[in-house]
Amino acid sequence: MHAANSNFTPGRDADVAAITTLVRVLETAQAWRDAEAFALLFWPDAVWTTGTGCRLNGLAEISAFARRTLTQDAGDAFASYSIEQITFPEPSPRCWRWC
Known about the structure:
Elements: H1 13-31, H2 35-39, E1 47-49, E2 55-57, H3 58-69, H4 93-98
Antiparallel strand pairs: 1-2
């Protein structure tokens, strides 16, 4: 995973660090096959798209998927993540008008 660097939005260093940490924790939970630690990273209304493109809606679906797939007998296939870009939407008067 790439470390946060100056290519990200200036003034958002704390946010970039938090996102980077979250991704590392997620990657570690998957590597350790820890379904419970993985599920703890998601809000109840989260949406997760798996590496194969399966969309999981909500914590119940995400947790069930993690329990099925993050097992010791899953072999030695591991997911890894690389943060390439983080975009922070900024509020603008135009957005306020349409929201």
